Amino acid sequence: PAPESNAVHGGRRRHVLLFPLPYQGHINPMFRLAGLLHARGFAITVFHTHFNAPDPARHPKYRFVPVPDGTSGPAPVAIEDVVAHILALTAGCEAAFRERLAAVLEEYSSDTVACLVADAHLLPMVEAAKSLGVPTLALRTGSAACCACFIAYPMLFDKGYLPVKESQRDMPVSELPPYRVRDLVVLGDDERGAVRELIARAVTAVKVSSGVILNTFDALERRELQGLRRDLAVPVFDVGPLHKFSPAGDSSLLRQDRSCLEWLDARPPASVLYVSFGSIACMSPRDLEEAAWGIAASGVPFVWVVRPGMVRGSARQELLPEGFEAATRGRGMVVAWAPQEEVLGHAAVGGFWTHNGWNSTTESVCEGVPMLCRPCFGDQMGNARYVEHVWNVGFEVGGELERGSVEAAIRRLMIDKDGAEMRARAVELKKAAEECSRTGGSSCLAIDKLITHMMSLKN
Ligand code: UDP
Asked: Keyword Transferase on this protein (predicted)?
């Protein structure tokens, strides 16, 4: 379709308003969606919290509207803190958002605003927009399976799967195959019901909106998408993998160290293990040490993202055990933050040791890179379950980390026949992802439908 004509209505350009949840794994897909919509002719206005605010200079074509959120202090590190933080953030910026939205609507004149696309965790913003007559679409940045798990949350409690009982961790959840109890979205002990509240709000945000946008694609989650379409009354747009549709835009909160790409250039194909646990997951000092010595003993070249704050209470320089650098000199590179999509797309990378955040999982899938899974919290266990038992493109390193088992797992993924077979399947999955993204492919059609839908929404 002709790009500029998509979003012009009665000679006037249509605006899309966006509000991401201010965490890296939520910011990235929202900005990719912004890039896609902008390329199709929409003017983009991004509302954002002060916490983890984007840098407007990196997106000169968008308008940014800061919304005071009433929070202060450093980024939360423990998942229990994240849940409380999200609830505090949303409560903190609700009134200010309503005010700023009203001002923006007046300025744009409301008939040119197509809709607000809000992260599904921002129910108060969805409600504020609706009350001001702005249609909303909810962006879910996790998998379709995770969305189904959210919807099923009350049932999981009713049927006794939740709260998790130690003796039932391996029990299959027959209503949500292939999940076992241990794979469900469980975030800490949830004493005060904060997690249930957060999940219930996300489901409500989806149900009261005019549709849900998912960063997934048909070849990856056909059955799960069918299930959602059956269970939800609103349209479901499976427009992923978003990072393959949008011009590369830099929405990274930390500076990406690009020197690892040059380092990779000198390495043979599929020889390097990329290790990263995303933007929030933390390791204990003990796990870090066992991981380090396992990586060292494997003899496999590596690029390892050791993020500041990854081990609670330590500054980066002190994180790795003494002697690790000498033991791996010339064979590995440690960076504070990597240009992950490019690293995964580099021919030298042959495996990814990941925490299975949904972005990391799909980025790996799209580059045909098999995974070593070390899920920590939230939807990551479920994502790892799919990697190992549905797509067969990796396996989990579970339990307490121990250098010997880490070494064995790395060698299995990078050197053994088993790993080669997973790599071959990952390449097939990559091809399937490319099919979906091609003209006429499922994701392309979903994007066209989404844009037509946006243009049809009535204030
Ligand atoms: N990422 C990055 N550099 C890194 C590690 C991660 O740019 O060194 C990006 C990665 O490409 C992904 C996002 O950060 O898009 C992390 O999202 P994910 O859902 O995988 O995990 P989260 O950080 O939300 O736990």
From this structure: yes
Closest CA to 145 of 104, 173, 165: 173
Q: Ligand 1 atom 18: the closest Cα is on which residue?
A: 357
How many C-beta atoms lie closer than 10 Å to residue 98's C-beta? 18
Please give the structure tokens belonging to residue 56: 């407007």
Cα 10 to its chain centre, rounded Å, is 36
Check if 252 has its Cβ closer than 6 Å to any atom of ligand 1.
Answer: yes
User: Where are the extended beta strands (E) located within 251-326?
Assistant: 272-276, 302-305
- Residues with Cβ within 8 Å of residue 431, at least 6 apart in sequence: none
User: Under a CB-based contact definition with an 8 Å cutoff, are residues 401 and 381 in contact?
Assistant: no
CB 135 less than 6 A from any atom of ligand 1:
no
Q: Is the pLDDT of residue 4 over 60?
A: no
Strands 394-396 and 8-9: unpaired
By most ligand atoms within 8 Å of CB, the mutation choice from 21, 83, 257, 279 for ligand 1 is 279
Q: How far apart are CA 135 and CA 116, in angstroms?
A: 6
Contacts of 95 (CB under 8 A, 6+ apart): none
Residue 316, pLDDT score: 52
The rounded distance, in Å, linking the Cα atoms of 29 and 149 is 20
Q: Which of 218, 243, 147, 248 is nearest to 449 (CA)?
A: 218
pTM: 0.95
Answer yes or no: is pLDDT of 50 > 90.
Answer: yes
